[in-house]
Design brief:
Blueprint lengths: L6 H9 L3 E3 L17 E8 L5 E9 L7 H64 L3 H30 L6
Antiparallel strand pairs: 1-2, 2-3
Helix pairs in contact: 2-3
């Protein structure tokens, strides 16, 4: 492994410009770690905002193996590779969004039912607190506190689900 800033490929990545090297052993950017490579053709993979995604590199064991036509062809392939990489990233985001939507579809009704049931338990426990005394009142107070905690957790879950579900313009 070499540093991204080293070698011909590193130069292409840093400068965001293609390189056609007819004899890599004569190029000062060459690292000298490959025995059977003599020519190299290298182009950056850039998105529409000129951000570097990667570098496409072709090598040959012959001197002067590449010409400007090969460089144009590799640049066209690089453009197609960028489109493919971006499409794969978009598909990944779409799959995650669909998973979150499914989770919301499943969790939403469950959270709603839990809220309703726990609210009913809390109201009944509060009624017991109002009428009872001693240990029963203490137990009913505990039930009210636990019910309020469950409702708080449920509210957090609803809030989280609202934050996660987003409309995506494809």
């Amino acid at each position: 492994r070499t540093d991204i800033k080293q070698g011909i490929t590193g130069w292409v990545a840093q400068n965001r410009q293609p390189a056609m090297v007819n004899d890599i052993q004569q190029d000062p950017r060459f690292l000298g770690d490959v025995d059977n490579v003599r020519s190299e053709l290298c182009v950056p993979l850039l998105d529409k905002k000129e951000r570097l995604i990667g570098v496409l590199n072709v090598e040959s064991n012959q001197v002067n193996a590449f010409n400007p036509k090969d460089l144009r062809l590799l640049q066209q392939l690089a453009d197609l590779a960028v489109i493919g990489i971006q499409n794969a990233k978009k598909q990944e985001l779409l799959a995650k969004s669909e998973a979150m939507a499914t989770l919301g579809d499943i969790a939403g009704p469950l959270v709603h039912r839990t809220n309703n049931n726990v609210c009913a338990i809390r109201v009944r426990a509060q009624d017991i607190c109002d009428e009872a005394d001693g240990d029963i009142k203490s137990f009913a107070n505990e039930i009210v506190l636990i019910a309020e905690q469950v409702l708080e957790y449920s509210q957090r879950m609803r809030s989280w689900m609202k934050d996660q579900l987003q409309i995506i313009n494809l």
